[in-house]
Amino acid sequence: MARTLSVPVARPAPNITLLTWGGIALCSALLLPWFRQGREIFSFLPAAMGLVLLRDSPWVIGVVILATLAVTVALLPRGEAERGRGALAVGALGLLLTTGELHLAGRPFGVGAAIVVLSFLAVLGTGLALSGMLRVDAFLAGSVLWMSAFVFIFILFPLWTVLKASVVVDGRLTLGFVEATLRAPNFLLVNNPATPRNETQIAALVGVTAGVLVGGALVVAGRRWRAVAWGIAVSTGTFVLAALYLGFGAVRNSVLLAIAVGVVSTALGFLFALLSERSRLPTRRLLGPFSILPIITPPFVLGLAMIFLFGRRGFITYQVLGISTNIFFGPLGVAIAQILAYTPIAYLVLQGVVQAMDASMEEAAETLGASRWHTLRTVTWPLARPGLANAFLLVAIESLADFGNPIIIGGGVPYLATEVFFAIIGRFNPNEAAVYGVGLLFLTLLIFFIQRRWIGRRFYVTVTGRPSAATPRPLPAWIDYGVSTIFLIWMALLIALYGSVFVGSVTKLWGFDYTFTLQHLRDLSPQGWQVFRTSAKLSAYAAVPSVLVGFLIGYLVTRVDFPGRGALELSSMLSFAVPGTVMGIGYILAFNQGVLFLTGTEAIIILAFVFRNMPVGIRASVAAIQQIDRSLEEASTMLRANSVITLRRIVMPLVRSALFSGLTFSFVRAMTAVSQVIFLISAGTNLATTQLLSYVETGRLGRGAALASVLTLFMVAVILALYAMNRRLDTRAAEVVTA
Amino acid sequence: MRRVMVSVVVVMLASFGVASAAPAGKVTILCSPNPPWCDAVKAEFPKATGIALEFLRLSSGEALARLRAERQNPSFDVWFGGTGDPHVVANEDGLTEIYRPRAWDDLRPELREAVAGKYIPLYAGILGWAINERLLKEKGLPVPRTWLELADPKYKGLIAHPNPNTSGTGYTLIATLVQIYGEQEAFELLKRIHRNIAEYTRSGPAPALLAGRGEVAIGITFVHDALDHVLKGFPIVYGAPRDGTGYEIGGLSLIKATPNRVNAIAFIEWALTPAAQVLNAERGESYQIPSNTKTPVPRIIPRFQDFKVIKYDFLKYGRAAVRDGLVQKWTREISTLPK
Predict the structure, then answer these.
(1) Is the ipTM of this complex over 0.85?
(2) What CATH architecture applies to the domain A524-739?
(3) CA–CA distance, B196 with B189 (Å, rounded to integer)
(4) From the list A42, A545, A683, which residue is nearest B76 (CB)?
(5) What predicted TM-score, i.e. pTM, was given to this entire model?
(6) Average pLDDT, chain A
């Protein structure tokens, strides 16, 4: 990033940035509260004002002096570099003193203290920019510091707390708790003593057999060296899977579920992507709306619908087919509900991949005489592989973190996400919950690692900017019809499931008495409507900051060079990869007491939303910013615009569409979130999703269906409205450009 | 350059500002009964007193965990409903304080004596089961009469009971069996029943619903929760084992050191009035015996004299050590067994 050109002047004018932040720090330190007593963040205790604290806290005196110094540095007629060094010292010391005071007092922070910390960070940033230590202007330097502070406090710190709580019990470092939890049969039991068979032996046998078979086949095919490697890999893999399958416990259930759901959803998503990009049949037009629906409703609404349709008294199983079964209560039902809910995620990822696969490569292969199969294996497959791995990763993580479906139709079998929940919400045993959380985290990272290994460093660039001559090749007719049929079945199932929720909301007693009633909808007053309003309000509050923070971080990591850039990017994406359940206990453990006490407030839920959904904004803006030619920004800088003006006038208008979809997506994700916020809700901050879960769990299916219907309709309306707004914005922008 | 930064700050602060503004004259309730009862209380209490009410519905085990988690910074004023044992634990943990309401002398003496002032009795309910006779008939099975018969392998996959980790009902079941058969024999019995369990539910009333919908044939729950589903039109009957059954005294507790004490007490006094105590049967889909003797008891509500109710030792089984020990033992030794 080019630096602002400095023009020599006779007498340097006061530095406005420094003056402003110094002034804000001074006023807040003196007049705003340093701490608060209860949960009310905006409570103004006179005794917490800096003016009062001055009497007995040398720290506060120091902070006030430093803030005054910041103002002085801004006013003194000195050169930029000298001012910068002054600001650097003042900012760093001020930060130290403020956090020192907060830490020593140990009382929940007040508004004043928060503003003072942010102001000193800004002063420090200005110092870094002025002194030339960072080759950017004050705004960008300050942004780097602010964003790093946010990411540290709201992502890294909670995760660290979870890790710590799993090994530090009552202030002592011990592995006893880890061991006790890991050895508990609820976690994982490979060799079940209560059964006569020896599961480990069977699994080993199965593994070795599979390895020998695969190895043997490869030997026959004449590939000796690969045979050994593959044989070992396959037998290990099969052994692990077989051991898990025969075993018992949360790890077993969660892992098998995640693998099954990941594989099936990715496969379905890929088929649907093919359908949408390469089909000649009209069914492809239906893909859009039906892939959106499961995303904009909480995932467990499908679990609720499964009870309606496939339970013991399910409409299809009992009324239509006349069978009475509860096999859908358990991992199978959870798997089906999750597949229905998460296939759209895989579809959306893979749609882009299929779009980007240039048909001319396949044509080239075939021109060179490759058979269809050979083309598929050597051209199409390597191109699709990174996308498939990515889709699998996303789905598997969602499945691991999903909380609603296992609790509604999981049949009381342990899953990692529910065990975390029971440990902290049911027994308030933070250490045990932390161990489960670390287990979940470990599995997620393992999947992540395997995915990275599998894709390797191979990337195939097919978007070169040059127009491709080849038109996308349509699917062969039999595949086209086959996939269309699968999609139609999937769609029918989805319609039936959502339909049953809507019908269930006006049905007296599903399964027994199908009389029409509006009672369930009336019963939503007052609690149902209130939680609904809370959800909409908090999600809306969170949407704007999460996109703004995401955009800023996205801009910083793509365009600004500063030390720790990679770390900032990685850790801000972390909150996306870490299961919501783990983040949830992290927030409870980190923010339940002390300086950062926030639990039970609306603020903590908003913060959870912001930092959970921020990566969406980051990804969207990184992708959009990378497409903008740097010369535009450089031109703006040459014309002596500072980075704020460049961002606002040049970059933001160009990425507006991406920002807007980021906004939409953040809102949707917040409205449908369960797994993280279920740990954070309180009386005034109960959300629609968690209330819905509570209705369903206590068997108020009618009332639950009513709330779910209202929620679904609202989300559809919001999405349509935002979509229309975005289109109007786009046409307006087009008019401006052409005018 | 400041404009964007300032606007970010303004947006964020404004969100928090609106977000944490709280209306005056409010009471915050931890609500453990059925959600419809909580919903009804939320609708009626402000009408009677002009005080706004917020609640969070948590099963009583979860409610206790929440109170423990918030020990330093309680956010609730009153804990309304839920089985009594966790109320006793909360009191011994110093999480709730003893408050003697004006209506104390009107409360049923047998309930008052049983809880020894550890909390305020709100209602009483008898442990039993909801039985789907049609499903049993389809399978050619007899209706069970005792706890012991539940262990019969012929009921495999047909029984549900609440998880004692989250549900006070689940704990009442375990404590009842321990009081009837002694700890060792009770756990042996639970182990054998475990093989027949289709599902351990998170909340207490859920097994009645499962039985009602025919997901299971026998749902162990409080008879008032079973009655709720009978009245809704589910093809079930309620009953209790003949070898004796336990009961609960639903609790009402004032949270210790709440800054909102005046409103909290106003709520407690209101909750014990006959006008409030008829809410459960009329609007709350809950059919417990109300604790105030002045409250008219609807005829449909199951009474003590209809069942063989044991002399449940609330003080012993409400002790934290005993309760946590039994729940942990169940989690470790029973819930993990294969079926």
Answers:
(1) no
(2) Orthogonal Bundle (1.10)
(3) 11
(4) A683
(5) 0.85
(6) 84
